[in-house]
Design goal:
Layout lengths: L6 E7 L6 E6 L4 H11 L8 E5 L20 E6 L1 H11 L5 H14 L3 H9 L2 H11 L5 H14 L11 H12 L5 H14 L4 H10 L2 H8 L4 H17 L2 H13 L2 H10 L7 H15 L3 H4 L8 H14 L1 H4 L8 H14 L19 H13 L1 H12 L9 H15 L23 H20 L6 H16 L6 H10 L2 H15 L5 H28 L1 E4 L10 E6 L5 E7 L13 E4 L3 E6 L4 H4 L8 H6 E6 L5 E5 L3 H14 L7 H18 L28 H5 L1
Parallel strand pairs: 1-4
Antiparallel strand pairs: 1-2, 3-4, 5-6, 6-7, 7-8, 9-10, 10-11
Helix pairs in contact: 2-3, 2-4, 3-6, 5-6, 6-8, 7-8, 8-11, 10-11, 11-14, 16-19, 19-20, 19-21, 19-22, 21-22, 21-23, 22-23, 22-24, 26-29, 26-30
Length: about 725
């Protein structure tokens, strides 16, 4: 008979004693449980003791988390958090260096526990840590433990980062700026500053002033990957906290220092694989850089701005230079205006008498003008060839340069998500972005020539303009999905993907998507579905058995520690636990926590999850909501919360958990996989019917014969 829900069977250890095997009554006060345990070992003063997990993070057991204890858990009897906090509070003030160092080391370890952290902070323990940092000159092991303890204590959000003194901050900054200091101290210092920057404008200005971009670039160029990562994290935090003007100045300076080229050569193409966190920072750096175009994209052309009118006129003059060199007195004003209008029409402006009107639409606004001017100045031969080639065509067959440029700029802004806020978890960056300073403009130069090439291949007329631009969008997105490492490679691949190739791809995809709609085929689809759905269920459960690496996301830092979750091979228990960076697939025995599948009650997704409700609505991010899911187990108050690394993992995990709960798989991936499997299975089964039309209705059943004499009577043969 299974034990009651409020009883768990556990083991309790103590150094130098035989372990106790007890049945823990969850309804019994924890103080009474401790009293019984201490009495069994003849220990007085039970209030001085506490229970904590023997494995993993060794969290203290409290009334609030005791329901997380599972059958088979191993606990340890240890000094209570308040006693330990008091002992270490005294220890870190010791005059004996060894005692002080050991106390700080122990403090750094225990500070991960929220119960201990609360006790230590309540004794004004952070003030002692401030003193050690502010007054000490040590840069060795003691300081490393101090900074580690400080970081862990601040993680619990009991104290605001705004309370830090200027002296303390400048001391942390000095460790970042020192040359002869241990790398671990610099990593911790960079991490502290990274957490500090987003919380307050004054703190941002102080860190920005004290830690120069040159210093961060120095840290980025080291071989220590962890130090490089922390330096990148602080750089990103500074960029995200800066005003638009400050961000532009910082990006201009980084461009002067060739940061992109360094990243392209030494980080992206490093011999070491790129970690998830660095990939995210590169995505943010790309996004921040591209979003510098947002202001121009959203600004309409001002017809009264002399500067903007000069840029517009430069397009005409560059294209029709020889014609524009005619002396001013040769033509009347009216004749000259007529000539300009004609030239602007040849350039492809819709409103040739007032071309500024074409640029009043925002987006793409002035960004389109900037791109056209860049193309004309940096590739004048290609620009002149584009314009003159189309000027010599029939009116209806000419590719309008200006109209195409405006629409192409808008397409590139949409593809590259210019003007959209950075995602908290995305890692999708384009390696070629970091190989080129003027990435957006150079990409435009390649793509506008692609427009002209595709226009000719399609033998398009003015009425086909939208169709051409749709094909160009498809050419660009398909090529970008291949993640070319350089613009040259992008140019080669996008030009190879000509109109005829696009038509072939479309036809192939259409054949894959479109199934015969004959009634017999539809009936066959329905018969195949249960078998294929079962195959998908098995695949989902197999994926859960292999497990996935998840990241915990806190309200202040983007990503915290790593943890791993996997399903047992018999599909009866979910195992999970914290893991170190770099661990890919930990064995199931190394994951200390477990949830029996039988105890799982329901699956929550998105806004229903408790860990998304905890955050304020202002900090909510759409992509995090789309990746969040929780398992409710035992009683509804207890949940295991997940943030999936990708939408693909989200679909597989939510499907797998629904299978374990005996429910339908509801993710969009299920439908996609089912469609693919059905398509393959139908094609295999209908191979013999190729080029044979399948009737909508089955052939009529013939009437029964008048007699059955043609049947062979086996009974006579047996005799």
């Amino acid at each position: 008979m299974p034990p009651p829900k409020d009883v768990v069977k556990i083991a309790i250890q103590m150094v130098g004693a035989i372990p106790q095997l007890i049945e823990l009554q969850q309804t019994k006060p924890l103080a009474a449980v401790l009293k019984d345990v201490c009495d069994a070992w003849s220990l007085p003063n039970a209030e001085r003791y506490a229970l904590q997990y023997a494995d993993g993070r060794q969290t203290y057991i409290t009334e609030s988390n005791r329901r997380d204890i599972k059958n088979g858990s191993i606990l340890r009897l240890t000094t209570s958090p308040d006693q330990e906090a008091e002992r270490l509070y005294i220890g870190i003030q010791s005059k004996n260096v060894d005692v002080k160092t050991d106390s700080l080391k122990k403090l750094a370890s225990l500070s991960q526990d929220v119960t201990f952290a609360q006790e230590f902070i309540s004794r004004n323990g952070l003030k002692q840590i401030y003193s050690i940092v502010e007054e000490g000159n040590d840069t060795g092991e003691m300081l490393a433990h101090t900074l580690k303890a400080f970081t862990e204590l601040m993680e619990h959000d009991f104290v605001s980062w705004e309370n830090l003194s200027t002296i303390f901050i400048k001391k942390i900054v000095s460790y970042v700026n020192m040359n002869a200091v241990d790398a671990s101290i610099q990593q911790l210092s960079l991490s502290i500053l990274e957490n500090m920057v987003p919380t307050n404008r004054l703190l941002f200005e102080l860190v920005k002033k004290e830690v120069t971009l040159d210093r961060l670039l120095t840290h980025l160029q080291v071989t220590n990957a962890e130090l490089q990562l922390k330096a990148m994290a602080l750089l990103i935090a500074l960029l995200l906290s800066a005003t638009d003007a400050e961000r532009r100045d910082m990006m201009d300076y980084l461009r002067e220092k060739n940061l992109r080229q360094f990243i392209h050569k030494n980080i992206i193409h490093s011999s070491e694989p790129l970690g998830d966190e660095m990939a995210h920072y590169l995505y943010v750096l790309q996004s921040v850089s591209l979003n510098l175009c947002e202001h121009r994209m959203k600004t309409s052309m001002d017809p009264y701005s002399q500067e903007q009118r000069d840029l517009l006129q430069s397009l005409r003059q560059t294209a029709f230079e020889s014609e524009s060199e005619v002396p001013a007195g040769t033509f009347s004003t009216e004749r000259r205006r007529s000539l300009c209008a004609k030239e602007f029409r040849k350039l492809g402006f819709m409103n040739n008498s007032n071309p500024a009107e074409d640029l009043r639409r925002a987006p793409p606004g002035l960004l389109a003008l900037d791109n056209m001017v860049y193309f004309s100045r940096n590739t004048p031969n290609a620009y002149s060839r584009f314009v003159l080639e189309n000027s010599s065509r029939e009116d209806k067959h000419e590719c309008p340069f200006a109209r195409s440029s405006i629409q192409l700029t808008l397409i590139l802004c949409e593809i590259l998500h210019i003007g959209e806020p950075c995602s908290e978890t995305a890692q999708a960056f384009y390696p070629m972005f970091f190989g080129q300073d003027h990435f957006f403009e150079e990409l435009f130069c390649i793509c506008i020539q692609l427009v002209n090439k595709t226009w000719k291949e399609m033998r398009a007329t003015q009425e086909d303009f939208d169709k051409v631009m749709q094909v160009v969008r498809e050419q660009i997105t398909r090529t970008l999905s291949l993640k070319p490492t350089s613009l040259e490679l992008f140019k080669t691949r996008v030009n190879a993907l000509n109109y005829s190739e696009i038509l072939k791809l479309r036809q192939t995809e259409r054949l894959h998507q479109e199934e015969t709609l004959a009634v017999p085929v539809l009936e066959l689809r329905e018969k195949l579905k249960p078998e294929l759905l079962e195959l998908i269920r098995q695949q989902r459960l197999l994926h859960l058995c292999e497990g996935t690496l998840f990241r915990k996301i806190s309200s202040r830092r983007r990503q915290d520690k790593l943890w791993y979750c996997r399903l047992s091979p018999n599909h009866k228990v979910l195992h999970y636990g914290d893991v170190e960076e770099g661990v890919q697939s930990p064995p199931i025995e190394s994951l200390p926590e477990k949830i029996p599948v039988a105890d799982m009650k329901m699956l929550l997704v998105g806004k229903e999850c408790p860990h998304t409700k905890e955050k304020s609505s202002g900090k909510q991010n759409k992509d995090v909501l789309e990746l969040a899911f929780s398992i409710v187990h035992d009683v509804e108050e207890y949940c295991l919360n997940f943030i999936a690394p990708t939408r693909y993992e989200f679909c597989l995990w939510t499907d797998g958990l629904n299978v374990l709960l005996g429910k339908e798989m509801t993710s969009e991936r299920t439908q996609t996989d089912l469609d693919v499997l059905l398509s393959m299975e139908l094609k295999l089964r209908l191979l013999d019917l190729e080029n044979i039309s399948i009737p909508d209705n089955p052939p009529p059943i013939p009437k029964p014969p008048s007699n059955l004499n043609f049947c062979y009577d086996f009974s006579h043969a047996e005799q």
